[in-house]
Amino acid sequence: MSKTDQWANSILVLLLLLYASVWAYGYFTNRLLYVISFLNLATGIAIIVYWVVKQFQIQQHFIEGREVAVLCFELIVVGTALYGIFSGHINNWLKVTQYTFFGIHFLVLIAGLIFMLTFKMNRLI
Fold first, then answer.
1. The pTM of the whole model exceeds 0.90
2. What is the per-residue DSSP string for 19-88?
């Protein structure tokens, strides 16, 4: 296993531990919706910023439908997280969406870790 793969695996494990610890903290302090909203906001902004920086580094721009779908999803995540943080209203739809977005991000991290541990890559993109 190369150093890059080891770094990627360790970062994924740290992110999984972060997600688990945020869930545990929120669950045991009865502030789960609030802390999950902050984590979803940070995750959505990080993904969008990563995509923007990557686009500035590419000389030829080919934007695929998958990228647009992920960016639209992350914009929805950021919007609902901001609404959940700044509004005083706790609605059932807000709880369901925040928990769903948290679960999707958590499952994607698990899938990424399984992928990194299963397949050997020559280089990271």
1. no
2. HHHHHHHHHHTT-HHHHHHHHHHHHHHHHHHHHHHHHHH-SS----HHHHHHHHHHHHHHHHHHHHHH-S
